[in-house]
């Protein structure tokens, strides 16, 4: 007996809905009770799916979290690569502003990532991408002379560390200040020092 096969587009939509439900349940539960205490049964109950459905998509709780992190990091990288899709007349958004905007738009996910285990991969990946962007910016400014390579890397590491600390603090506080203001203050401080804020 042959059954009627489901169109591929419909299968893809069902897969996406299921994965969205599981990832959303994971994030909500992390914010509620932390990652380490979570069970697959609790995630399935919150997503309203069965264990067999869970294992059709993910091999474990860690696999689910890695998938959620990877997807958001890919979205962020797409924003960095094309910050004004379809709007060629606009100047490009700076990488740090793109990260602030992404974190604001996905603040529940970002809060879940920075709490407890499992977020190191995402944070390290974002730091590496941001370091590459800042390295390029500093090289364009033409830092030269004795110790130039050391000073460039010193500046990159200082800026990346300061930025990630500010980003985490901002997200944990509810991202109440506008992303554009965070970007402006970060740029002013990193380019001119603390006295420039007074």
- Rg, nearest Å: 21 Å
From the N-terminal CA to the C-terminal CA, the straight-line distance is 78 Å
User: Helical residue percent?
Assistant: over 70%
Shape: elongated
The biggest sheet, with number of strands, parallel, antiparallel or mixed sense and barrel status, is: none
Runs in which pLDDT lies below 50 for 5 or more consecutive residues are none
Total beta-strand segments: 0
What portion of residues belong to β-strands?
Answer: under 5%
Oligomer state of the chains in this structure: single chain
Mean pLDDT: 79
Helical segment count: 9
Which series of helices and strands comes N to C?
HHHHHHHHH
Q: What structural class do the secondary elements suggest?
A: mainly alpha
Quick summary:
The protein is 72% helix and 0% strand.
Overall description:
The protein has 198 residues and is mainly α. It is elongated. It has nine helices and no strands. The mean pLDDT is 79. Helix content is 72%, strand content 0%.
Keywords:
198 residues, mainly alpha, 9 helices, elongated
Fold blueprint:
Layout: H1 8-33, H2 40-47, H3 51-57, H4 61-81, H5 95-105, H6 107-114, H7 120-141, H8 148-172, H9 179-192
